[in-house]
C-alpha cells in the first residue's frame, strides 16, 4: 500500500465516519436524518433523491475499492506530487466543511427534503458563507480523492455524483423558498450557493 492509498483511506474514513456519526447521534434523539427518496414529495424529487443516494453509495464503495487495490489498471495517469498535495488539502478542507456544517445544523440536518418535520432555517456558523456547505464538503472530498487516485471509473462516478448533488441543491432550494418565503430569499441574496 502506497502513500496515496493510505491518504485516501484516511480521508474517506474521517469523512464518512463524521457523516455516519451524525446519523447515529440524530437517531438516538429520535430524528431520522436520511430522508432521500422518502416522504410526501413530488415524484421527480423522490426520483432525484434516489438517484443521488444510489450514486453516492456506489461512489463511496468504488472509492474504497480503488484505495484498497492496485489503481494501475484504470489509472488516468500516475499520481504526481502536486496532485497528492492538492488532493489531500481538498480532502481535509472537505472534511472540515462537513464537520462545521453538521455542527451548525445540530438536529435540523437532513439528507434530502423532509416534509414531515418542521425545522428552522440555519444561517449561522459556516452557513453564513455557503447555503450548501455539506455539498461543498462532499465535492471537495470527491475531487480530492480523484486527484490523489486518478482513475477512469472515479472520473465518471465523481462527475455523475457532482451533477446529482447540484440537482439536489436546486430541489432543496425550491422547497426552502416555499417553506421559508422572504426569510429564505433574503438569505439567498446575502449568502453564496456554494
From TrEMBL:
Localization per record: Endomembrane system
Domain of life: Bacteria
Record bears the keyword Transmembrane helix: yes
Transmembrane segments: 6-25, 52-69, 81-100, 134-164
Any Pfam family matching the protein: PEMT
UniProt keyword list: Membrane, Transmembrane, Transmembrane helix
One MF annotation (Gene Ontology) recorded for this entry: transferase activity
A Gene Ontology cellular-component term: endomembrane system
Keyword Repressor: no
Membrane-protein topology: Multi-pass membrane protein
PANTHER family the UniProt entry points to: PROTEIN-S ISOPRENYLCYSTEINE O-METHYLTRANSFERASE (PTHR12714), PROTEIN-S-ISOPRENYLCYSTEINE O-METHYLTRANSFERASE (PTHR12714:SF9)
Protein name per Swiss-Prot or TrEMBL: Isoprenylcysteine carboxylmethyltransferase family protein
High-level lineage: Bacteria, Pseudomonadati, Bacteroidota, Bacteroidia, Bacteroidales
Amino acid at each position: 500500500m502506497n502513500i496515496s492509498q493510505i491518504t485516501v483511506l484516511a480521508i474517506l474514513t474521517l469523512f464518512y465516519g463524521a457523516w455516519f456519526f451524525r446519523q447515529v447521534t440524530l437517531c438516538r434523539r429520535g430524528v431520522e436524518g436520511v430522508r432521500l427518496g422518502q416522504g410526501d414529495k413530488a415524484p421527480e424529487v423522490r426520483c432525484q433523491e434516489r438517484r443521488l443516494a444510489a450514486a453516492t453509495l456506489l461512489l463511496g464503495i468504488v472509492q474504497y475499492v480503488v484505495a484498497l487495490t492496485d489503481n494501475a489498471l484504470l489509472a488516468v495517469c500516475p499520481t504526481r506530487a502536486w496532485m497528492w498535495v492538492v488532493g489531500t488539502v481538498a480532502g481535509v478542507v472537505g472534511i472540515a466543511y462537513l464537520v462545521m456544517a453538521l455542527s451548525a445544523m445540530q438536529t435540523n440536518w437532513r439528507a434530502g427534503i423532509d416534509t414531515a418535520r418542521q425545522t428552522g432555517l440555519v444561517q449561522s456558523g459556516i452557513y453564513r458563507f455557503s447555503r450548501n456547505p455539506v455539498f461543498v464538503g462532499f465535492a471537495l472530498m470527491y475531487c480530492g480523492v480523484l486527484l490523489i487516485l486518478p482513475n477512469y471509473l472515479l472520473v465518471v462516478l465523481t462527475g455523475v455524483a457532482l451533477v446529482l448533488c447540484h440537482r439536489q441543491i436546486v430541489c432543496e432550494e425550491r422547497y426552502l423558498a416555499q417553506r421559508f418565503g422572504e426569510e429564505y430569499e433574503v438569505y439567498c441574496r446575502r449568502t453564496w450557493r456554494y
